[in-house]
């Protein structure tokens, strides 16, 4: 199975706008969360395995306004045994407004500690999207 690049259309909400008239920087992270959920829904048939964010990095490149058409592309660039790296690019009217990456670790809810990612996500079962 090759992990897809998942595109998520986003609706800018009035509450997303700050006093400068553009989307507040903390909302960009909320958009990234929505894209991550859409990504996992695209690759899983059943319940989504638990993961926790252990690192997140984001570069803001341009402002997003209320009337902009906003989309987010999300993909997995690396999968290890216990963690995975995801890339996300946020677009406003076709121009990249933000880009970021995050590292997720598998999480065991009962033991409250990190655990291996699901076996069907393991590198031997996937084709890396790094060059896409």
From TrEMBL:
Pfam families: 4HBT_2. GO terms for molecular function: fatty acyl-CoA hydrolase activity. Gene3D superfamilies: Hotdog Thioesterase. SUPFAM superfamilies: Thioesterase/thiol ester dehydrase-isomerase. Keywords: Hydrolase. It comes from the Bacteria. Transmembrane segments: none annotated. The keyword Transcription regulation does not apply. Belongs to the 4-hydroxybenzoyl-CoA thioesterase family. This is Uncharacterized protein. The lineage of its organism: Bacteria, Pseudomonadati, Pseudomonadota, Gammaproteobacteria, Cellvibrionales.
């Amino acid at each position: 199975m090759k992990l897809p690049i998942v595109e998520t259309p986003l609706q800018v909400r009035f509450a997303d706008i700050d006093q400068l008239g553009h989307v507040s920087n903390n909302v960009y992270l909320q958009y990234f969360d929505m894209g991550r959920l859409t990504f996992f829904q695209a690759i899983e048939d059943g319940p989504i395995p638990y993961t926790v964010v252990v690192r997140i990095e984001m570069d803001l490149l341009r402002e997003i306004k209320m009337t902009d058409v906003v989309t987010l592309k999300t993909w997995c660039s690396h999968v290890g045994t216990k963690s995975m790296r995801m890339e996300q690019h946020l677009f406003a009217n076709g121009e990249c407004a933000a880009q970021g990456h995050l590292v997720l670790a598998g999480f065991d809810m009962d033991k409250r500690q990190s655990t291996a990612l699901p076996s069907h996500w393991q590198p031997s079962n996937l084709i890396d999207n790094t060059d896409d």
